[in-house]
Amino acid sequence: MGKGRLEAFSDGVIAIIITIMVLEIKVPQGDNVAALSPLLPVFLSYVLSFVHVGIYWNNHHHLLHAAKQISGAALWANLHLLFWLSLVPFVTGWMGENHWHPLPVALYGLVLLMAGVAYYILVRTLLHAQGPNSTLAKAIGRDFKGRISVVIYALAIGLSTLNVALAIGLYAGVAALWLIPDRRIEQHLPAE
To answer: What are the CA-CA distances from residue 129 to residues 4, 77, 176, 186 (Å)?
Structure first.
């Protein structure tokens, strides 16, 4: 099966997710800096989520670029990932509007955790379809960053009831880990 439709559909869904997130930021009632102050948690939540969704989009692109074929299982695994990513605008808005109360922060982390698990499943599904000696298998390797990200999300969820700032710091730390360019796939693809 070709991968063009899967890429196009995923790109469209991710673009809509980002659009929904920005539309959730309400215009303040006032024309001074003080009117912006209550929006700071909302805006910072948006920035954190925008970075996470952007990282998924970037890595999803590289992942599918390295895949030569797509199985039916990969289509379902991709939908599973998109389901969790589609919940990011909701938990982002809830977390920001409630000024990072522990429960919304924990639910935000749960959605990030499940998106991480879904991405891991998608990677494994694509690896199965490509075979153990494929370019994708060589590029992914042991996938330390993917595995440690899920562990950090789980840790942050547990910490959210004790220390919200630390939990959000861990969510941001995972984003920072992935912002460091991951050249695994690019290094294994032939120059085009």
So the answer is: 16, 12, 30, 20
Q: How many CA atoms lie within 13 A of 50 on its CB side?
A: 14
Phi-psi domain of 100 (left: phi exceeds 0; alpha: psi -120 through 50; beta: other):
left
Cα–Cα distance, 32 to 47 (Å, whole number): 22
Domain ranges (residues) in the chain: 4-188
Question: C-alpha 21: how far from its chain's center?
Answer: 13
Rounded alpha-carbon distances, angstroms, from residue 125 to 120, 171, 185:
9, 26, 16
pLDDT (mean) for 158-172: 97
d(CA 156, CA 24): 25
HSE at residue 175, side-chain half, CA atoms within 13 A, is 18
Helix (H, G, I), strand (E, B) or coil at 125: helix
Average pLDDT value for the chain? 91
Query: pLDDT by residue (tens digit) across 58-89?
Result: 999 988 888 888 999 999 999 999 999 999 99
Q: Whole-model pTM?
A: 0.90
Burial readout 100-130 (b: 16 or more C-beta within 10 A, e: otherwise) = beeebbbbbbbbbbbbbbbbbbbbbbbbebb
